[in-house]
Amino acid sequence: MTPRPDAIGLVVADMAASLAFYRRLGLDIPTDADTAPHVQHTLAGGLRLLWDTEETVRSFDPEWTRPTGGDRIGLCFACDGPAEVDSVYAGLTEAGYRGHLKPWDAFWGQRYAVVLDPDGNGVSLFADAPTESDAS
Q: In this predicted model, what pLDDT tens digit does every residue of 45-67 receive, in sequence order?
C-alpha cells in the first residue's frame, strides 16, 4: 500500500478565532466547534482540514513549541475570477485580518493575494488573470 494525502493539519492558538477566519472563506464549520480541542472539516474531493489547539498538541508532544521565523504552511483558495480575489481580500482585511500581499496580477498569469490567518499562516487567494483574448 502507498500512503496518500488525506489531511492538512493546523495547530492554532485560538480555535474560535481560527475557525471564524476559515468560515469567512466559505467553510461550513458549526459554531459549536469553537470550543473543541480538535476539529475536522472534509473539503470537496475528500481531503480533510484539521485544527488542533496548542494544548492538544502538547498533550501528546510535551516538547512541542510554536514555530517561529516564517510560514510553515500555506493554504490556497481558488476564486471565480480576479474581482473575487479583490473582494475576498478586502472583506478579510476590513474584518481585521492582516493582509500580507495586496491583490496583484502575478507574472505567472493569476490575480493573487495573501492574507494571514489568526496564527500567521499565509492563505493565498487566486484566480486566473484575464488574457488579452478574454477582453475581445
A: 999 999 999 999 999 999 988 88
